[in-house]
Structures are given as C-alpha cells and as structure tokens.
Amino acid sequence: MVAEASNGLEALDLIEKFKPDVAVLDIQMPKMSGIDVTRWIRKQSLPTGVLVLTAYDDEPYVQAVLRAGANGYVLKTAEPQAIVESVKDVFNGKSVLDSTLALKL
C-alpha cells in the first residue's frame, strides 16, 4: 500500500502522485464517488487497475462501476483472502466480480 485517501478528491491527488498499480475504491466516498474517480482514471489513460470494494450489491451500482471502467467489484463481506486475491487479479490484468454478484446478474 502506498497511500490511503479519506475522500474521492484526495484519492485523485494520490493516484496522480503515486500512480499505483491498483486503486481500491468504495462507491460512496466524501467529495467524489468511486465511480467518478474511476471515470477520471480512465479519462487520464492511467494504467492503474481499479477494484471497487463496497457494501453495495445493487445491480445499478455494479453496472455503473463497470461502465466507468473498473476492473473489479468485490463486496466488503468477502473473505479477507478473497479480497487479497482480487487485488492480485486486478494487478495481473484480470477482471473480478464477487461471486454473489455474479449469481444476481
């Protein structure tokens, strides 16, 4: 881990400064949503992978995040090892979708 942001705008600054391999974002963040941060990353053509780690399992959120360009979507209820594996998968260029969401979609 290279940095931790307390809100979406701070996340933008830190992503721009450190250019991480993977950014782990939530959907609901103060000042700017994870969806908007993801759109910004993609608009800047940064090579940063995006993994959304959230409590929201509603289909509209999943669709919005994936349309914005996220590489993965994992629920906070996932086992810690599954979250670690998801970060590794995004780092390795794979797409990730929480198994409980895959069944709903």
Overview of this structure, please?
The chain has helices at 8-18, 34-43, 59-68, 80-91, 99-104, and strands at 22-25, 49-54, 72-75, 96-97. It is α/β, with parallel strands linked by helices and 105 residues long. It has a 4-stranded parallel sheet, sandwiched between helices. Helix 1 packs parallel to helix 2 (34-43). The chain is globular, with a radius of gyration of 13 Å.
Keywords:
105 residues; alpha/beta; four-stranded parallel beta sheet; 4 strands
In short:
The chain has 105 residues and is α/β, with parallel strands linked by helices. The chain contains 5 helices and 4 strands. It has helices spanning 8-18, 34-43, 59-68, 80-91, 99-104; strands at 22-25, 49-54, 72-75, 96-97.
Secondary-structure topology with pairs:
Layout: H1 8-18, E1 22-25, H2 34-43, E2 49-54, H3 59-68, E3 72-75, H4 80-91, E4 96-97, H5 99-104
Parallel strand pairs: 1-2, 2-3, 3-4
The rounded distance between the terminal residues' Cα atoms is 31 Å
- Provide the helix percentage: 40-55%
List the total number of helices: 5
Mean pLDDT: 94
Total E-strand runs: 4
Sheet having the most strands: 4 strands, parallel
Q: What is the SS-derived class?
A: alpha/beta
> Proportion of β residues?
15-25%
What is the 3D shape?
globular
The rounded Rg comes to: 13 Å
Strand order of the largest sheet: 1-2-3-4
List the uncertain runs.
Answer: none
